[in-house]
Here is the input.
Amino acid sequence: MSGNTELKKARAGDTRALARLISLVEDSSPRVRDLIKELLPSTGSARIIGLTGSPGVGKSTVTGALIGAYRAAGSRVAVLAVDPTSPFSGGALLGDRVRMQDHALDDQVYIRSMASRGHLGGLAASTPQAIRVLDAAGFELIIIETVGVGQAEVAIASLADSVVVLLAPGMGDAIQAAKAGILEVADLFVVNKADRPDSQQVVRDLRNMIALAHLGPADWKPPIVSTIAMKGEGIDELVGRLDAHWSWLGSSGTLEQRRQARAREEITALAFAALRGRLTVNRLDTLAREVASGRLDPFAAAEELLNTRDGTDTEYG
Amino acid sequence: MSGNTELKKARAGDTRALARLISLVEDSSPRVRDLIKELLPSTGSARIIGLTGSPGVGKSTVTGALIGAYRAAGSRVAVLAVDPTSPFSGGALLGDRVRMQDHALDDQVYIRSMASRGHLGGLAASTPQAIRVLDAAGFELIIIETVGVGQAEVAIASLADSVVVLLAPGMGDAIQAAKAGILEVADLFVVNKADRPDSQQVVRDLRNMIALAHLGPADWKPPIVSTIAMKGEGIDELVGRLDAHWSWLGSSGTLEQRRQARAREEITALAFAALRGRLTVNRLDTLAREVASGRLDPFAAAEELLNTRDGTDTEYG
Here is the structure.
């Protein structure tokens, strides 16, 4: 199949063609490079929202509600749900996704889970390519939903133009989010399950932390939106705040800066992936034995490794 | 100060000398390389236990109980508590540490928090060096405690000879641990807070998951120990299981394999850190602008970056 033909089909709403293109990216196929080159001129117009937070705060419910709101406004919406590696990957743990199934029959909505396939760098390298594919396929809004609270999730969330951090009373409170470094990347906070007794306490803690840590630039202080996503409450306000952030991104020049920063991360991730490909050569095993036995110091080993050129093609994956 | 003199002091129990050596490592001082070279011949005899699990399961309490048990057996014990980057780093979030304060006046016990200073690769690069320093300083047991459930924590936990994964009823259950990929790295499971009503359910879930995912090698099936660490219950059994694992590591040849694997990770992390140092040059900004504007594809940019030699010395950090 030609990437270009598939892309035309995907643009026309052929979900299976789109799925095949994203699979190429996810599998780090050697054909990804040509594909990305081909579709590059058609990218740059999608708006990317990152959504992150501890397990159980209601990310999928909020995502489902956002899909509904933006569909009502006429946008094509795609969701990339990023799951960390797990021996139980695939269907079993993706029960949450059923909460998005309201939109399963809408061919202007595309929902896809990405798995990280065993190493930290993998998702950081493949997610931007998946975003490009969705962008080129004509999705105006792309939501990246990350499951988890680690630094990998923070890194992936920061691929977005607007980053929404979700909290909920009792589940992964503000202190835990602070521990994971998630608060720093937030453009907006959502306190979901606002009908729970201690939700006002979460809002207060969060407000104190935002003040304490001087989060956000001087002209964009991250707002806190309370929602009960299950009932659709607060979603209009969230959409309003997101749209205000999008306007601010454009008018302040931040969008351009942020997309350049994203490109920096992407290039770095690809370079790391290529380096990792190079590391699979036998040389690393020999060096590791020397270091483990105390015959060679690890810095000398790293230097030797970086200077090893084994003559094979650069690999990405 | 000479690393060697400081090391002699640290070996003799001078905690301030030891703290200075670890700070060198944590700050990625250019002197680390010489220090590690110097102390390399004195390393290799410490036993390293990794302890990980979701926030709130009682990691610090279990660590405190383990310190007590191994001190009673006459070992010098060190703890590296690894915290993810946070704008609130330092004292504020380290309240948990007070649970280890029973041992604060024992000069045969050394407890240290490591912060990750802003990027994922940082801790992966500096933690092994901190372990070497503690090993060379004569600590027989080194416990690495990671706070969090992300892949970075999994990566750091796998630096250990024995990895203990903690769970507790209601806090980060087995499914969440599976999502984070934590179960795969476990040599032992601890279900803490075993006096809570649903702790037996956690044990059952865990047992099912271990069977389902075929966790562990054929001759070491990860045991599940129930503890109430606050009351010291189950700690003797945990120590017994840990000692059995240590014996198995030696007799099966796994210890050597694992330490070689650790050296591989260490070399890789140092190589990545060096590469990252190289990436700070202006070239990356130029490439990022080209990619962000769609004029250059990211793969070509990554290749160009890897081939850039800017003439500066290799940096680690």
